[in-house]
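ugh ok fine here u go
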Amino acid sequence: MTSAVSADKNRSASAVLVTLGMIVTVGAALGFQHIGGYTPCALCLLERDPYYYAIPVGILAIAASLFRLPVWLSRSALIIVGVAMLIGAGLGVYHSGVEWGFWPGPTTCSTGAPSITTNAGNLLSDLNAIKAPSCNDAALRVLGLSFAGWNVVASIVLAGIAFFGATRKAA
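structure:
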């Protein structure tokens, strides 16, 4: 009985940790964008999608643990989160490779989320003047890694946490 309780606690803790980790990671990206002024490129925006899809699934895993729903539900949710984070890591590797010049980026790389004025009179001139950043150039590097590189690290760690929780079984 104690191993079943321990497995449930590990699964619950993993669900909470991975979900909070995803929220903090995507929150940091949004903070760099809206507070730090770093305009994301098209690949940066694409790298956020796995988080946007996986956070609600992580919340489902937490709820399944809290309400003692069938174990397969929390396990399945954690597996989905883990797979989403591996996809996020793959996107980050691809983007990092584009930044380092290992392979070309997509042709849509020049489109992103430009900062457009809220003044309607300046809207057309701003659309012509503001260019989104290229996916080829890292906006910032910390310890040699760009935002895309750090996304790879975060995604792999989060996938590991999710898969750890999903594989906890009562002995």
